[in-house]
Amino acid sequence: METALEAGWTLSDVWILRSISGVDSARGSSLRGVIAAADYLNHAIPREDEFVAGLGRLAAAGLVEFDVAADRYWLTAAGRSSAAHRGTFIAGLAALPEPPPASPPLALPTGVFSSAVGRYLQDST
Q: What is the pTM of this model?
């Protein structure tokens, strides 16, 4: 039997899922807020490629939704109820549903991610 990791999920996907859920579940969160939650959870800031790859897989699986133009990222009902929020990141990985088929890579407009990281770092000092 193929595990979630072999099928395409990564530990970063769990990290991104938990980071999106760690902010404002009612209105969604800004990218800066997701980055702040990620740093809180893992004492690190995800790389842009980790973020967009994870966001794309999570959205394709129906766990998150987002509106880049409005700078909002949120969990779906399935994402909120996912057992991937509990335990270690490895336990969360095992709790993710069957991964979706590969989809075209997601990309943020140039500078959006680095700008959000910069705002977070500036606010953190």
A: 0.88
